[in-house]
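task queued by scheduler; priority normal; single chain, no ligands, no partner chains; default sampling; output format set to structure tokens
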Amino acid sequence: MKPKIAGFQLVSHTIRSLSFEIRGELKEVSLKPDLDLTPKYEIRRKDERLSGELCLDISYNLKSGKKIIIAFKAIITGLFVSTRNMQEEEFERFIKYSGTPMLIQMARGLLISISAEAGLTPPIIIPMINSTTCFEEK
């Protein structure tokens, strides 16, 4: 079976900022994860095609009590386009509910790589999350 190409594509991404810090001793310390995720997007139409920029601001800390032992922060931007004529509401759903998990996975891979290079065994992995909750009304 030949797969069908989606009408929504990621054409590029940029890591706009990145920081990773180990701020304390890791031996025999119980660490609690603290994740904050803020996606923002903008959609534009040019002729028959839509394009959108999704910016994901992600902060993932591991804490001992109130003290942050490991801090990771990144801002990743993805550029998405429609490959066919598409309604703006459909494109917006793709950006929010397909684009956000794509950028989260990029952040996850980045943190795994950086923490492994820093000598942490096992490397740090951002947990799986339900990214649709990022768009619910507060």
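post-processing summary
- The helical segments are 88-117.
- The CA atoms of residues 51 and 81 lie 4 Å apart.
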